[in-house]
Amino acid sequence: MTAATGVVSGVRVSHDHAGLDEVEAACHADEKMVLRRLLDAPGVNEAFTLQTCNRFEAYVVTDADTAGRATLADFAPDVGGHSVVEMGHEQSLRHLLRVAAGLESLVLGEDQILGQIRDAYESAREVGALGPMLDAAVTKAIHVGERARTETDINDGAVSVGSAAVRLLGDHTDLTDATALVVGAGEMGTIAAHALADADVHTLYVANRSLDGAAEVARAVDHDDVHTVALDELASTLNFADVVVSATGSDTHVLTADDFRGSGEMEVVDIAQPRDVSPAAETLNGVRVHGMSALESVTDETERRRRAAAESVEAMIDREFDHLLESYKRKRADEVISAMYESAERAKERELSEALTKLDAHGGLTDDQREIVSSLADALVSQLLAPPTKSLRDAAAEDDWATINTALQLFDPDFGGSDRPPAFVREQFADGEVPDDVAERMPDDVRAMIASDDD
Fold first, then answer.
1. Same-domain status, 374 and 415
2. Hey, which pathway is this one from (predicted)?
3. Does the pTM of the predicted model rise above 0.70?
4. For the chain, N or C: smaller number of CB within 10 Å?
5. 143 and 99 Cβ atoms separated by less than 8 Å
6. Active site residue: 13, 38, 53, 67, which one?
7. Domain that holds residue 381
């Protein structure tokens, strides 16, 4: 198994420091292509990316943090430096846990982000981008996100981005008896469609590139008057709509200014990333377009109601973060220690076989005598490796990886490939001395033969 070594570096462009345009500029259409590009960078051992409607984040594992920072430095060249947040090892790990728990979402505690992290995790696994460091980190993040939502009230009454969009529309217009249009049949579009149906809109239209996808949403919502339309029918459908929620995954604008001309008064919420609605549409009289930033006011009340729960989640994250760091330390030390013991065991078996052969040449050994010699070999390995084992575990606990690497070099786990017993083993018997706990069970003739060996 690959050792859990390296340093995690991260970078993010998200709603807390950047505008929607900057998040758009940072995001990439092909998530797997981004992962491959990161893995191809010099010194990168692992990679993970997360892209949502209001964030782009990338994480890499390198042997040194300088390599990680260099890889991520130019990863969002079209975004102003003030909007890009660089994260070091521990900051990256803690932030990932916070994101999964919903503490970094535009809507505090929303559930959608957890599914998005799971999807990003599967994409990274398919590309082979995850190793022991990031696999453990993302798995831990998902675990924390699940715990936060089942053990606290962080998502009690929480609204997703899709339902928050509908609440925003309700603040600007009377949804009762309104005609509503949802563009996009993905997760956010589906949530928005359910929320509009719950708001008792008179008529609901669901538009999607695939009519089958639109039909699936239409069947799922609880509404008596719901219709499906193709994207090329949007312009005509807008003539009937009073409110619009757009949430497609299109790389280009789905709704242009021309589509809205002659449509009259209309409230539009664009929650797509990249944006679905052309900025030119905002210049038309009667058309009011609300972006992601407008949802913040909608979520203020929800956030206030869950601050106590958020404090509990923060404490949970502190504990899980410490557990994650400790697991890294244990893995690093245990992998090194395991390698040491495996090498020592191979050397012991080789030298024990040779020693028993020589002893047999002096007249043979009884089964009890052979067991005593074997016990001596086991005791030597245990006693010789006990001090470096403790030192390595202490060094791991103190993040002293230089000591771990130095210890490996000094120990020489392959014993230099020599057929002779290691010097530190031969020295144990230089004066015919044997550890007391072994000597008590060893016959005098066997002890004498071992002590007199002049290898």
1. yes
2. Porphyrin-containing compound metabolism; protoporphyrin-IX biosynthesis; 5-aminolevulinate from L-glutamyl-tRNA(Glu): step 1/2
3. no
4. N
5. no
6. 53
7. 340-452
